[in-house]
Specification:
By secondary structure, the chain is an alpha+beta fold. It has helices spanning 21-47, 55-68, 77-95, 221-239, 249-283, 294-297, 312-325, 327-340, 387-400; strands at residues 6-18, 113-116, 125-126, 131-136, 140-145, 161-170, 173-185, 194-199, 205-207, 212-213, 286-290, 344-348, 373-375, 384-386. The strands form three sheets. The chain has a seven-stranded antiparallel sheet with strand order 2-6-7-1-5-4-3. The chain has a five-stranded mixed sheet with strand order 10-9-8-11-12, sandwiched between helices. Strands 13-14 form a two-stranded antiparallel sheet.
Length: 426
């Protein structure tokens, strides 16, 4: 950071690529080669003795594999080096307790991606108002949608430049995600008020000051009907397929249509989340949310054969609703957006925030009479109001009482490192 209050920031910008059919095949080949290289590297890691698991030995193994296996040569050399660095960084994250140990990448469940480590290789130019062009190694010059000003040409410098990019494929096709490094003015401390937020399913975001942020269905009724029809068609065609028989082109096309509709719903959800979190970060200096363990909340209630679960269908419907709201993504957005605006985000324990009366502090399960109505059962109080706003006020109360970042079960907030035996490459 300089004396003028400037600081370096890293951010990403994603744009849609306009690839020709030949370019799509080339990008697909590179992505499959990158995934295969990761799997080969993981197999090599498990096979080699600990004292041989070094960056130099892994680099030599990758170079030899690119000579011995023809289809790995479609992956640019720098992209192959990026796979190697990413794999070693994955182990470092595991040793430091930030992530699980790396594993094999499956063909169907893995996002297809290719890294372009050097920004200068892109040679980005702007064609006109809506389109720009970038050089993709072993693909050629490709147009992309210009939806945000990028530091290229005279705007680029040592402190304001594109450091690299990554090609990513989703249901809508190939996109390019630029890594941008820029020098910006350090934000002044936010002078706004404090707010507690209660996240729910029926009311997505309820604030302690009485405001709510809600949304409608991500798909229209016509789109929902079409999605149901496509899912039924896919199930019917899949039922006629013999064991071991390859998936037909018609079924692949149906799967693509289903993925396209689901991607449209996700884009609408992301747009709503971005707009909502931006408004909150600009308005409030301190944002307080519950420290929810979402993975435990959406666990199946099916149980076992000996002890079957209860209300399995209702629980699965609730799990889908919770997953659809993407509370974790909302908190992630609020975290960096509040920081960019000079504010802060804090987490407080979640238990009893919906059962406690914000007026007198009385806690009992019967206080919440319904999803929307809260009536305090304390004879000396009797306060009633909206249940979601009451929970949001309790969230803010916990922060003001000094309970921020204190876990509900007494465990450390920062994830503890798993007992993974370090290798020689550590």
């Amino acid at each position: 950071m300089s004396e003028r209050g400037l600081e370096k920031r890293q951010f990403g910008h994603r744009a849609r690529l306009a690839l020709a059919p030949a370019g799509v095949r080339a990008a697909d080949g590179q992505a499959h080669a990158a995934r295969t290289l990761w799997n080969l590297l993981h197999a090599w890691w498990q096979m080699m003795p600990k004292d041989k698991r070094t960056l130099a030995h892994a680099d030599a193994a990758i170079r030899q594999a690119r000579k011995d296996i023809d289809f790995l040569a479609v992956l640019p050399a720098q992209a192959a080096q990026a796979v190697l660095k990413t794999y070693f960084q994955a182990w470092k994250n595991c040793w430091e307790g930030r992530a699980d140990a790396p594993n094999f990448k499956g063909r169907l469940r893995t996002v297809m991606s290719v890294d372009v480590p050097q920004g200068r290789d892109l040679n980005i130019t702007r064609v006109h108002r809506r389109w720009g062009m970038a050089n993709i190694p072993k693909v050629g010059r490709v147009r992309f949608r210009w939806t945000k000003d990028l530091p290229v040409g005279k705007r680029a410098g040592a402190e304001n430049r594109i450091t690299g990019a990554r090609l990513i494929k989703d249901a809508l096709g190939w996109h390019i995600a630029f890594r941008v490094q820029t020098l910006e003015v350090k934000p002044e401390p936010h002078q706004g008020p404090e707010v507690g937020i209660d996240m729910g399913v029926n009311v997505p975001l309820a604030l302690s000051d009485g405001q709510t942020y809600e949304h409608g269905a991500w798909l229209t009724e016509k789109e929902k009907t079409k999605l149901l029809h496509l899912e039924q068609r896919a199930a019917q065609r899949k039922g006629h397929r013999q064991p071991g028989e390859r998936t037909s082109r018609r079924l692949h096309h149906t799967y693509d249509q289903i993925a396209g509709l689901r991607a449209k719903a996700k884009r609408r959800a992301l747009d709503w989340q971005h707009q909502t979190t931006t408004a909150i970060a600009r308005t409030y200096a301190t944002v307080v949310v519950e420290a929810l363990t979402i993975t435990n909340m959406v666990k199946s209630a099916r149980g076992t054969i000996e002890e079957p679960g209860k209300n399995v269908a209702q629980k699965s419907g609730l799990d889908r609703s919770i997953s659809g709201e993407a509370w974790g993504r909302t908190v992630t957005m609020l975290t960096y957006k509040t920081a960019n605006n000079g504010g802060t985000l804090h987490k407080v324990p979640a238990p009893n925030t919906s059962r406690r009366c914000s007026a007198c502090g009385f806690i009992t399960p019967g206080n919440r009479e319904s999803q929307a109505v809260f009536v305090c059962k304390n004879p000396d109080c009797g306060w009633s109001g909206n249940a979601d706003h009451n929970a949001a006020q309790n969230v803010l109360h916990l922060y003001r009482m000094g309970h921020a970042l204190i876990p509900a079960a007494g465990r450390a907030v920062v994830r503890r490192a798993k007992r993974v035996k370090p290798a020689a490459a550590r």
